[in-house]
Amino acid sequence: MPIAETDVRWVKAPTLGLLDRLYIPAIMQGLGTTIKHVFQPKVTQQFPEVRPDLPANYRGLHRLNRDADGRVKCVACFMCSTACPARCIDIVAAPAPPEWKDREKYPEMFVIDELRCIYCGMCEQACPCDAIELTSLFDLTGLSREEMMFDKEKLLSVFDETVKMGKDPIRTQAGVLSCASEPSI
Questions:
Q1: What secondary structure, in 3-state letters, does 78-110 show?
Q2: Which of 23, 46, 47, 83 could covalently link to 122 via disulfide, CB atoms 3.0 to 4.6 Å apart?
Q3: What is the DSSP letter of 115?
Q4: What H or E segment, with its residue span, contains residue 125?
């Protein structure tokens, strides 16, 4: 069924005056905005001398958590690598030593490509045993791609450093709903 002629409304282009054609009102409006910003208070932070205050749920560098015995908490269930949309987590599982009665497997190799990661937190939410977390560390640098591949030892050292600094993520303790549901206080 075609559109009725009464339902069509034709829009005409506005006619521009001399000032509008010379762009003088637009230039004046831009200068007004610039002058307004000159007299507003400045909010520049002097980074690295003054560290920014990040929110408690900031998602930065990954860490692998240790259990009470100092072992890696990960049970090599592959849930984090399955949930990762960037496919940046690689795990190689191995049978757990016989003295470890609480698990069947552990990660023989655990690697996160920090350059490929999008820091979405899906790995953290998928982990059933709270083994992987994103910390509030954000100033990560490396001179090569190999330096940005975080293996199990490097991720465990991030855990040791954040515990020593007292910068545990807010999501450290699992809540009733999920690992990010309740802050640990």
A1: CHHHHHCCCCCEEEEEEECCCCCCCCCEEEEEE
A2: 83
A3: T
A4: helix 122-126
